[in-house]
């Protein structure tokens, strides 16, 4: 009996956290034939604070995982981004690219995460829900060889063993902290708050981004820090939220839930963004940006998604990068697993942070400069007033902010953005 339990709790890889990063990592590892344990703290379905809007980058990853993203399966497609600011309103379709589809998607996170996790299970990953991971198990050299956890409602102490562990446990990433990996204070951090309203705008086929947030309740209109979004969910509700950056002077001072209320109060009444139409509480979450926790590999531990600070500083998008880092981590682990000696395996694993820096480093450095600029509401105001009247410039901005370019054979805009990302220092 003990041997059976031991084998059930021993694998080639342990993935801690079954959000988009963890589920994607586990799916690709299992597809490649590795034995994977996927440990999820809560039980599905479970809520996550998110805008629920997915760009074409994320759509591409869902297609690669074999997820049915048809409207019949409950997905709402969108054509692009509507930008509102500086007295202007501009609709920009997602670019036509060889590398990415020309549509985005919307799906609630409680349902979205579960779909990914179940897909990983179908591929062969063994998932434990209500499995709260605590301490890492370390060998004499300080290398991780497993984790201690509490399982089920009874919180039964258990141990799981594997030569490699993936931390996909989000922004708080207790596992990384226990391994001595702390957040870099020199990297931007964001906060997102959002809620849902019953609204006639629920089936909007554009993601809507507000570059200026106005509080129009007083004698004088007041420009609030941050940017807002309105995403139709296709189910009778809209996801309405705002993001703010710690480069803003007001970051620590203000109550962001109150700011969301002030902003929605200034919207047209017929949209229905009023307290009585709210279908749930206002919830908030941190957005760890631009590689804010490093190294992404150390002593048998790989960081993916929010645990490694992979949120795009330009637009606050995290899901696409969570999934992409999961793919990169899985490919790295599969190659390392096939090496004959520990030294060769280690050589292969150390390539993981290098690939992340090659892929995103320059782009994230540009993003950090951008974040410093727009932390000033005056700069944001001038940028929106001048920029939104130039559709060509805004098409360039859309490609830049959403990181949507063809790496080779693209147009002039693609070449400029790719060139800037190449010459910028690698985060």
The oligomeric state is single chain
Going by helix content, strand content and strand pairing, the class is alpha+beta
SS summary, helix count? 12
CATH topology label of the largest domain: FAD/NAD(P)-binding domain
Strand arrangement, major sheet: 6-5-14-17-18-13-19
CATH architecture of the largest domain: 3-Layer(bba) Sandwich
Number of discrete domains? 2
Residue runs with pLDDT of under 50 for 5 or more positions: none
User: What's the CATH class of the largest domain, please?
Assistant: Alpha Beta
Percent of residues in beta strands? 15-25%
What separation lies between the terminal Cα atoms?
A: 49 Å
Which shape, going by the Cα principal axes?
A: globular
How many strand elements? 21
Q: Mind telling me the C-alpha Rg?
A: 22 Å
Overall mean pLDDT: 88
CATH superfamily caption of the largest domain: FAD/NAD(P)-binding domain
Q: Helices and strands in order, then pairings?
A:
Blueprint (H helix, E strand, L loop, with lengths): L1 H7 L4 E4 L3 H12 L4 E4 L13 E2 L1 H9 L11 E3 L1 E6 L2 E6 L10 E3 L2 H15 L2 E3 L2 E8 L5 E8 L4 E6 L2 E4 L6 H5 L10 E10 L7 E5 L2 E3 L6 E3 L2 E6 L4 E9 L10 H10 L17 E6 L8 E2 L2 E3 L15 H19 L4 H8 L1 H24 L2 H11 L3 H12 L9 H12 L4
